[in-house]
Specification:
The complex is a heterodimer of chains A (360) and B (477). By secondary structure, chain A is an alpha+beta fold. Chain A has 13 helices and 17 strands. Chain A has three domains: 166 residues, Uridine Diphospho-n-acetylenolpyruvylglucosamine Reductase, domain 3 (2-Layer Sandwich); 81 residues, Alpha-Beta Plaits (2-Layer Sandwich); 66 residues, 2-Layer Sandwich (Alpha-Beta Plaits), CATH 3.30.70. In chain A, the strands form five sheets. Chain A has a five-stranded antiparallel sheet. In chain A, strands 11-12-10-13 form a four-stranded antiparallel sheet, with helices on both faces. In chain A, β6 and β7 form a beta hairpin. The two termini of chain A are 24 Å apart. The mean pLDDT of chain A is 96. Chain B is of the alpha+beta class and 477 residues long. Chain B is 37% helix and 18% strand. In chain B, the strands form four sheets. A seven-stranded antiparallel sheet of chain B has the order 15-12-14-13-17-18-16, with helices on both faces. A five-stranded antiparallel sheet of chain B has the order 5-6-10-8-9. Chain B has a four-stranded mixed sheet with strand order 1-2-4-3, with helices on one face. Chain B starts with 7 loop residues before the first helix and ends with a helix. The mean pLDDT of chain B is 94. The chains are: A alpha+beta (360), B alpha+beta (477). Chains A and B meet through β7, α7, α9 and α13 of A and β9, α8, α9, α11 and α16 of B.
């Protein structure tokens, strides 16, 4: 099924007689849901774009590339830096903005501006009964009623099918530069990222892979130069500085997890405390890419290491199997949280037809 | 303001309920003397008052859990209360309810500068969270104007904002995790210091749920390194439209000030008479604050000056030193007090798309004449969060009602232009009956279903957020 309007989408869900597999472009789907495919790609196009108010309202099936183009015309962007996981996951297809929101997909700049969910101002969606619901709006400050926008972001289509999303967008900075820090081991290289993030120099990216730590600053040219100088004096190691497109290319690699692309094995996405990041990777003897100053680890392991990963992160974060066979894919919840999750799902999708089995 | 009639069966069991509460709490944590309960009969929305059945002041998550369990078993409504600074009546009790105040739970439990978080008990005040990390040159970003008094618990309940959220976001963007006690006494941990949700983002819906889903007892908050410095400029204009256009141009240019505050002429005049900050006598003024090193501040202010000049300002005032910077903020910070000197006032909190600013201000001016009540506008212009202050005389019969009707019209206008009823104060009881202006029945139903899951008996802060008629069957159990 491929509805082209919200009303058609509502009809499709209301009239469904079995489970539905909700799909934008299918470029970042995880888990083992089954069902008739319900594509959102037909719900496409920009509804409202006000560059002067930094707000964009867009239909959920709109390709990310189209959103990026529209914003680029006004020298703006989605601040949270949408990862393109097609290479890592071996997928083809057109990534949609609804899929980005449904997975709360957030790139390196999360350390500075927050996640996808933090940029979402409003949603419209069709719940599991076929009812259209709206929440939030298109203004930056809104505490009217409960915030279902955050709940929908990252819910992977299990509570409803997104039909429209509003975003807070960001002006493109005048300049960017990256400090490339070499000559440090993983412990010291990650400590350098924490020093940078704990400084007043407004770091917009802090990552490490292939033996190098990367620290990014963005903004007005004079300010970027000043902060690069200040950071260089504080992080240690051998520092080279790259700017503009050379810098941007480095961050696309981090964002899209390029270093782990095409390699055999399973890939885990681990959220943790930055100070635990080096230890977890050492314990797992994994090849890793660290982002968010160490708060996010992409770890490449031989297949079948789920138990070891779970043990390594216990009490200091959680892990999701993004590439590999078997399961469980998503981290288990504490029983009292699992009860709330099940309760919310049963209210939004009483027949349990939306992406059944996806999130466990 | 309608409130549900108290449940006579609860009132009849008062002695038994209080003795059960005393059985699970230290002696000094249960308050039932009428003269002491008066302190809890309202919050900062003082026009409405009702003493609760009792008030409890637990010190730990375990005590909160025990209290809620008793109330759940007895079918007693519970009204959670931080510091009682809600302007929307979020902590307004009913005669059959128990106030659960978290004021005694104010400890710092953990500070971790390397991982950039602090864990506090929820009764800690907003400003004292920043105070706890100040020595290491960190701060907690959301800064509601009540920050000296307001508690983190209330900030989470209302998803509070502040003057600096243009850059740093509001509470939900700075909240990493909570310990929450459900109405049945179950203790739940949502989120954690790593910030990234493991599954459904339940933390995201708890934040801003006005104390209706659970009582937050502890919270992990993101802390940020302090900027090297900050400095404001003041720009005066001869029309609201031009001031609005200037705000839009600054934002479009990619400059991200930490604050852009707007005051209109009635507000400027009242403030001048009261605080004598030396503001220019003009139609509209902006206070724009930027952060960074001296060089960075100069770079940003230079760009802002260039943009402002194109709009022909009547004044562009820079601060040469700390004292002048303080004077620029003085009037803005005194604005509410200044308006309060003239008369009683009601402070509204709707948000509008920034592009609608001139139209909305013009309409508010027209409505002010129609209602015969003066209004001053002071607000966070960068994010469209307005704070119209309607002046009225509480001692004049009918004036409060007229003021409320005027306020409702302004909020409807905010929704009409694509905005919302409340940007940072919350719905509480104050805007409860306007929810249908912004939301269709299905939109509210979806929200109420979340409460059904967390609090199936609808005992937690039950008469808030949604119109009473909409929640009647649920509250009846």
């Amino acid at each position: 099924m491929r509805p082209t309007t919200e009303a058609e989408l509502a009809e499709a869900v209301a009239g469904a007689t079995g489970p539905l597999l909700v799909r934008g472009g299918g470029t970042r789907t995880l888990g083992h849901a089954v069902g008739e495919v319900l594509e959102t790609g037909g719900l496409s196009g920009v509804e409202v774009y006000e560059p002067g108010a930094l707000t964009l309202v867009v239909r959920a099936g709109t390709p990310v590339a189209e959103v990026d183009r529209a914003l680029a015309c006004e020298r703006q962007r989605l601040a949270f830096e949408v990862p393109d996981l097609r290479g890592l996951l071996g997928r083809e297809g057109v990534s949609t903005i609804g899929g980005v929101v449904a997975t709360n997909a957030s790139g390196p700049r999360r350390v500075q501006v927050g996640a996808c969910r933090d940029a979402c101002l409003g949603v419209r969606f069709v719940d599991g009964t076929g009812t259209v619901v709206k929440n939030g709006g298109r203004v930056m400050k809104n505490v009217t009623g409960y915030d279902l926008v955050k709940l929908m972001a990252g819910s992977r289509g299990t509570l409803g099918v997104l039909s429209e999303v509003s975003f807070k967008v960001q002006a493109l900075p005048e300049a960017e530069a990256t400090l490339v820090v070499e000559g440090l081991g993983d412990e010291a290289g990650l400590a350098a990222l924490r020093v940078a993030l704990g400084s007043p120099f407004d770091v917009s990216g802090a990552a490490r892979h292939s033996g190098r730590s990367l620290i990014r600053v963005e903004g007005m040219a004079g300010s970027v130069a000043y902060r690069v100088g200040q950071l260089r004096a504080r992080v240690g190691g051998e520092v080279t500085v790259v700017e503009a497109e050379t810098s941007a290319a480095l961050w696309r690699e981090v964002r899209d997890v390029v270093p782990l692309m095409g390699k055999p094995g399973e890939v885990w996405r681990i959220a943790t405390l930055p100070t635990a990041a080096a230890g977890i990777v050492a314990q797992l003897e994994a090849e890793a890419l660290w982002d968010w100053g160490g708060g996010l680890i992409w770890a490449l392991l031989d297949p079948g290491h789920g138990a070891e990963v779970a043990a390594a992160v216990a009490g200091r974060g959680h892990a999701t199997l993004v590439k590999g066979e078997g399961g469980p894919v998503f981290p288990p919840e504490a029983p009292e949280v699992a009860a709330l999750v099940a309760g919310v799902k049963a209210k939004f999708d009483p027949r349990g037809i939306l992406n059944r089995g996806m999130m466990g | 303001m309608d409130m549900p009639a108290p449940d006579p069966s609860v009132i009849a069991r008062k002695a038994r309920i209080i003795s059960r509460l005393r059985a699970v709490l230290p002696a000094d944590a249960v308050i039932d003397a009428p003269e002491e309960l008066r302190a809890y009969e309202c919050d900062a929305l003082t026009a409405y008052r009702c003493p609760p059945l009792a008030a409890v002041l637990p010190r730990t998550t375990e005590e909160v859990s025990a209290v809620l369990r008793v109330c759940w078993e007895e079918g007693v409504p519970v009204v959670p209360r931080g510091s009682g600074t809600s302007l929307a009546g979020g902590a307004m009790p009913t005669a059959d309810s128990v106030i659960l105040g978290v004021a005694r739970m104010n400890a710092v439990l953990e500070t971790d500068y390397e991982n950039r978080f602090i864990r506090v008990q929820s009764g800690r005040t907003n400003l004292s969270v920043s105070g706890a990390v100040e020595a290491e040159r960190f701060f907690y970003a959301p800064d509601p104007s009540s920050q000296l008094a307001c508690a983190i618990a209330g900030n989470i309940a209302m998803n509070s904002g502040g003057a600096h959220c243009l850059k740093y976001g509001v509470t939900t963007n700075n909240l990493l995790g909570v310990t929450l006690v459900k109405m049945d006494g179950t203790v739940v941990t949502l989120g954690g210091p790593w910030g990234e949700p493991a599954g459904l983002d339940l933390l995201g819906v708890v934040c801003g749920s006005e104390g209706q889903l659970g009582v937050v007892t502890e919270a992990w908050l993101r802390i940020l390194p302090k900027p090297e410095g900050a400095r404001p400029v003041l720009v005066g204009f001869n029309s609201n439209e031009v001031a609005g256009a200037c705000v839009s141009d600054i934002i479009k240019a990619g400059i991200l000030p930490v604050a852009i505050e707007f005051m209109d002429r009635p507000c400027i005049r009242a403030t001048e008479a009261f605080a004598k900050a030396g503001y220019p006598d003009c139609e509209a003024l902006l206070i724009i604050e930027v952060e960074g090193s001296e060089a960075e501040i100069s770079e940003q202010l230079g760009r802002i000056k260039q943009i402002a000049r194109a709009h022909d300002p009547v004044e562009f005032r820079e601060a040469a030193d700390e004292d002048q910077a303080k004077r620029i903020w003085l009037g803005r910070k005194s604005a509410f007090g200044a308006m309060g000197q003239i008369n009683d006032y009601m402070c509204l909190d709707g948000t509008i798309p920034v592009s609608s600013l001139p139209f909305v201000l013009k309409r508010i001016g027209e409505m002010s004449r129609d209602f015969g009540l003066d209004v001053g506008n002071v607000f966070h212009a960068g994010d469209g969060n307005m704070h119209p202050l309607i002046l009225f005389n509480a001692n004049k019969p009918g004036d409060l009602e007229k003021c409320e009707a005027f306020g409702a019209e302004i909020l409807k206008l905010c929704v009409e232009v694509g905005g919302c009823l409340t940007g940072e104060h919350g719905v509480g009881i104050e805007k409860r009956d306007l929810m249908a202006v912004q939301f269709a029945p299905a939109d509210m139903e979806a929200q109420m279903r979340v409460k059904d899951v967390f609090d199936p008996k609808w005992l937690l802060n039950p008469a808030k957020v949604f119109p009473l008629a909409t929640t009647a069957t649920r509250r009846a159990g």
